[in-house]
Amino acid sequence: MSVQSAAADVDVDLRQLFASLARNWPRILVVALVVTGLAFALTWLATPHYRAETRLLIETRESVYTRPDGTNDNDKPILDEEGVTSQVEVISSTDILKQVAQKLNLSRLAEFDETADMPVSSRLLVIAGLKSDPNEIPPEERVLTKMREKLNVYRVEKSRVIVIEFSSENPRLAAEIPNAIADAYISVQGNANIESNSAATDWLAPEIADLSKRVKDAEAKVASYRAQSDLLMGGNNSVLATQQLSELSSELSRVRANRASAEATADSVRRALQNGGSLDAVPEVLSSELIQRLRERQVELKTNIADLSTSLLDNHPRIRALRSQLADLDRQIRIEAEKIMKGLMTQAQTAQARENQLVGDVNTLKAASARAGDQQVELDALQREATAQRQLLESYLTRYREASSRKDSNYLPVDARVFSRAVAPSEPYFPKILPIAGAAFVGSLLVMAIVTLLQELFSGRAMRPAAGARFERIEQVAMPVAHEPSNHEPTDFEDVEDRAAEAQVEPQAAAAAPATAPATGEDVEPVRPTLGEVEIDSAVEKLITSGAARAIFVSPEGDEAAASAVLVAREVSDAGLRVLLLDLTASGAASRPMLDSGLFPGITNLLASEAQFSDVIHPDLYSDCHVIPVGTADPVRAMRAADRLPIIMQSLTTAYDLVVVECGPADAQGISRLVGEGTEVFLSLLEPDDEVAQAAVELIESGYPDLTLVTPVGHETPGTPIPGRRSAA
How does the record classify its membrane topology (predicted)? Predict the structure, then answer.
């Protein structure tokens, strides 16, 4: 079993938890003031430190007047984020820091070299071997180590600005050192550019000489091959054979077109003459001047014939003469058309001959052009090689002249500039007395408040039953006290607060009236008086049939009557139920006969947070019942956590079918904190008397009308002695 079994039935009482702050505010305030005073004293005595910073901007420093010819701002890449970060590492490099340390002679200052002015205490620690000897480290390394501790170089986010930040006990050094680091960085970058430029000129000079020779050889090869291959260049920078082939091809196309046109015209004239058709449709015929005059004469004769036909007959000699002239004109026109046709045929034949000649010339030039093409390919390759060598030579010459001029003039701009130099600070950045003291005060208040809340929480005083729990919140608890134990003085559990005024009750005759028994003769013992009590078996039967979860036993007669709780717990356990007996008597009268010892951890250890449930629950030696004894812890300390008792009861009733609690001579107020759902209250007695009757009346009037009186007299169980008057069970 674990303490966590009750976690679901417990809530944190925030009011009680935070009320602890009000109860402990003097202690919290005193601790906060002490811490604040210590912080104020330490900051007041601390050595002040000053901080200054220098800012660099990484940018292209080349101007438009000094930029190499043919280049612009976009030709030179600007450093990206990784490049700027690399410059941060360069600035904080060992070489630059060494230069600054030597320039400012920092090794003579105790701030950077503790061997310069080592105090006596440090020397004694070194002699005793409690501190390493700084003289074993080289002086430069000691200075560099201190400089790195005080130096902070970083890049401003999303920019090309580098900040050089340095702190020192001397405000003048705090400004001089970052300025010196920035100057050293720019000087190193300038020297690097000079070295790079010198290396470039030293490399370009022999390369240019070699390239000049190679360019000369390449151009000589081009000229020699051109002369050997007889590659004559024509117009448009082309080979002469190729150009002639192109011209002849154009001429051949023109001759072929003229031949085709002459043949077509001759065919049309021939068809017109053969078919007797009109020659007016042939443009070449119409264009002849002779035919045009004959046509005009023909038109004139037709007009005269038409005029004479109005007055003369067709056989008239004049008309016949005119008709004869008209026929003669038609014959002349056909003769002229035939001449034109023959001329066109002659022209076509001439064009055919010219075409044949041109075709032969073209074929000849084709072969020559093919040979020239192969030779031109080789010539072009030689020319490309010569051109490439020439261009490379020109590029090297340009760069060499630029590098040589920069070397001679010693002008090589660095791609960085200082736009904000450090100045000596007037106020230290550490210590800030008021902020540190205020932070110490607030922090100590918070820490003490948290510590107080945790103490209240872990002590259990800030716990309360959950909303679903049936037991009520209690303010105090008192463990029962044994009355007049023989030769034993028990330790009482005292009340945390004053008890409420006890109710004044009058004993009722009906409850206190003893029962009478008839006499059976002189040999019969007198009948024992009763108050209506039941025996152990009846009490067990009542608990089992009612399904009670808790059985609270009150014993007004003291430890003698505690045997009733033990007997009932054992009988119910023998019936098959899981039963636990919780002993709340001062002397352990209920648990001692079950464990044969009173030195076991018990309820007081659990309340004092010295043990867990698994440590305080023990098995009965004579039954299957479990027992939680009184325990061995300090009762006063256990009383401080009395609020946990209802929670413990709730957890036990969850784990067991029945929890039997022996309270000793407790009153109604004493058992009220143990009562919960399904609780049966029993009053254990040995001999009825006025004390027992008064206790029964008080319990009934205090809200327990179902009180059951039970007696262990006459019940025998192995391992449990029969109680007698004033004898512990």
Answer: Multi-pass membrane protein
Greatest CA separation for the chain: 217
Same domain, 436 and 298: no
The Cα-based distances of 3 to 9, 479, 585 in angstroms read 11, 22, 23
Please give the mean pLDDT across all residues of the chain: 77
Q: How far apart are CA 652 and CA 406, in angstroms?
A: 97
Q: Are strands 618-619 and 626-628 parallel, antiparallel or unpaired?
A: antiparallel
What is the strand order of the sheet 161-168 is part of? 151-155, 161-168, 50-57, 417-420
Kindly report, residue by residue over 454-506, the tens digit of the pLDDT. 888 776 666 665 554 444 443 333 433 333 333 333 333 333 233 323 333 33
Asked if residue 567 belongs to a domain, the reply is yes
- Give the pLDDT score at 290: 75
Q: For residue 215, is it within any domain?
A: no
Number of domains in the chain: 4
Same-domain check for residues 385 and 258: yes
Residues 396, 449, single domain; the answer is: no
pLDDT of residue 318: 80
- For residue 276, what is the DSSP state? T
Residue 397 belongs to some domain of the structure: yes
Centre a 10 Å sphere on the Cβ of residue 68 and count the other Cβ atoms it contains. Answer: 15
- On the question of pLDDT at 706 being above 70, the answer is yes
- Residue 517: the pLDDT is 36
Q: Are 459 and 641 in contact (CB under 8 A)?
A: yes
Alpha helices in 278-316 (DSSP H): 283-286, 289-308
Cα(630)–Cα(173) distance, integer angstroms: 75
Distance (Å, whole) CA 365 – CA 371: 10
Is the pLDDT at 579 greater than 90? The verdict is yes
Q: Is there a single domain that holds both residue 144 and residue 248?
A: no
- What would the two tokens of residue 283 be? 């443009």
CATH code of the domain in which 656 resides: 3.40.50.300
Amino acid occupying residue 642: A
The total of other beta-carbon atoms located within 10 Å of residue 677's CB is 12
pTM above 0.85, yes or no: no
- Whether residue 389 sits in one domain with residue 242: yes
> Would you say 155 and 88 are in contact if contact means Cβ atoms under 8 Å apart?
yes
Structure tokens at 344: 């066109």
Does one domain contain both 247 and 383?
yes
Question: Of 213, 220, 212, which is closest to residue 383 (Cα–Cα)?
Answer: 220
Same domain? For 258 and 356 the reply is: yes
Tens digits of residue pLDDT in 677-692? 888 999 888 877 777 8
Domain termination site, one of 124, 153, 182:
153
Residues 218-247: pLDDT tens digits?
888 888 877 777 565 555 556 666 777 777
317: preceding bond cis by omega (within 30 degrees): no
Question: CA nearest 471: which of 479, 463, 480?
Answer: 463
Question: Are residues 444 and 372 both part of a single domain?
Answer: no
pLDDT greater than 60 at residue 337:
yes
Q: Is residue 503 part of a domain?
A: no
Domain with 128, as residue range(s), is 80-153
Q: How far is CA 149 from CA 43, 140, 166, 167, 664, in A?
A: 21, 14, 9, 9, 74
The predicted-structure confidence for 404-438, as pLDDT tens digits, reads as follows 777 666 666 788 999 999 999 989 988 888 999 99
Amino acid in the structure at residue 385: E
The dihedral through the CA atoms of 536, 538, 540, 546 has a sign that is: negative
More confident residue, 311 or 26: 26
